[in-house]
Amino acid sequence: MNPLPQKKRVVVTGIGLVTPIGNTREDNWQSLMAGRSGAGPITHFDATGYEVRFAAEVKNFDPRQYFDAREVKRTAPYIHYAVAAAEEALADSQLDFTRLDRQRCGVYVSSGIGGFNVIERENARILDEGPRHISPYFMISFLVNMAAGHISIRHGLQGPLGATATACAAGVHAIGEAFRIIQRGEAEVMVCGGTEGAITPMGVGGFSAAKAMSTRNDDPQRASRPFDAQRDGFLLGEGAGVMVLEAYEQALARGASIYAELVGYGLSGDAYHITAPAPEGDGMYRMMLATLQDAGVTPDQVDYINAHGTSTPYNDKFETVAIKRAFGDHAYRLAVSSTKSMTGHTLGAAGGIEACYSALAVARQMIPPTINYETPDPECDLDYTPNEPRPAELRYVLSNAAGFGGTNGGLLFKRVE
């Protein structure tokens, strides 16, 4: 019997970010360290009359840096953000594609919703003007895989190409699947992450109708308060987080700078409810155990968890329970934080953005804070790194994600010795 092939090691060699707290990797890091919120009044549309009139928007972003004027109109913001983040991640990686087999370089960038604004615009057009006035670019503007497609075409990356539509876990699943592709030897390089641009009338109205969002219209920057006793819902955000994953041997051979090694990926399904987390955080608990098992790491080796931490009453309570179940007594010794306190909940982009933050935390040995943490909740009793970043010795960092439908995903990053 032939032995199973050895899994390849996988490392992060490039990071790109477009978020409500910065349009570059370094701007994001500075905002994280300063505890800066990206929240403010909605400017993407007139929110007069809406129950929620604030969000965490990407600011001062010009898609014409990446697309000509006609292309900007034919594409959606989630594509713009992803292309920009991918450009930064690839430049950061310093890959020379003239020396690589492009058929072994792929893209896996996901979105939860895709081009929501395009759907709204074309629906209004068909109702007002009739079906003959629908844009011929409609179908290729909103599909969730189009961000990955644009990145692949722009850079001539002919390897594996994919996208998941797994709600707020989409970014983690994209990176995890890209990780598996390299582990199996099917590619040497994967550009991967998550992207979203759903701060639209229907996006805000829909989540508001579901009573999922904070209604602190008078104080947007203090609205996202994960694990705080006074939390009242999430802050809607947008943006993209994209990283370059690369086979370790190749990165080492070319002298690449490495942020972290990706060593574990786990998934689970709650099988409980479309929107509510399973009792006792069962799905997230099993996902975290699966992630650690995949990496061959024991719970007491993990130093920090970048939590899903949405600032909703149920998520934060049950994620805390899940962490305590998965880590036992060590749960009280490790650090936890939610960077959604600053970026808001970027939906399908969240897993990509927070994975990038986790890799940066490993590289820089710093834990980003949970801002707006003011009133402890007896049901959320862990160390949430309140309000100030913290230097720490970080060997293993876990990034959690969950989404509607009961989907969960986790990524475990390791410091490269």
From TrEMBL:
User: At the top level of its lineage, which domain of life is listed?
Assistant: Bacteria
Q: Which UniProt keywords apply?
A: Acyltransferase, Fatty acid biosynthesis, Fatty acid metabolism, Lipid biosynthesis, Lipid metabolism, Transferase
Which pathway?
Lipid metabolism; fatty acid biosynthesis
Q: Do you know which CDD domains this protein is assigned to? A: KAS_I_II
InterPro entries per the record? 3-oxoacyl-ACP_synth-2, Beta-ketoacyl_synthase, Ketoacyl_synth_AS, Ketoacyl_synth_C, Ketoacyl_synth_N, PKS_Beta-ketoAc_synthase_dom, Thiolase-like
For molecular function, the Gene Ontology terms on record are: 3-oxoacyl-[acyl-carrier-protein] synthase activity
Pfam family of the protein (one): ketoacyl-synt
Enzyme's top EC category: transferase
Keyword Transferase in annotation: yes
NCBIfam families, from UniProt? fabF, PRK06333.1, PRK07314.1
What name does UniProt use for this protein? 3-oxoacyl-[acyl-carrier-protein] synthase 2
Supply the source organism's classification. Answer: Bacteria, Pseudomonadati, Acidobacteriota, Terriglobia, Terriglobales
Per the record, the gene is fabF
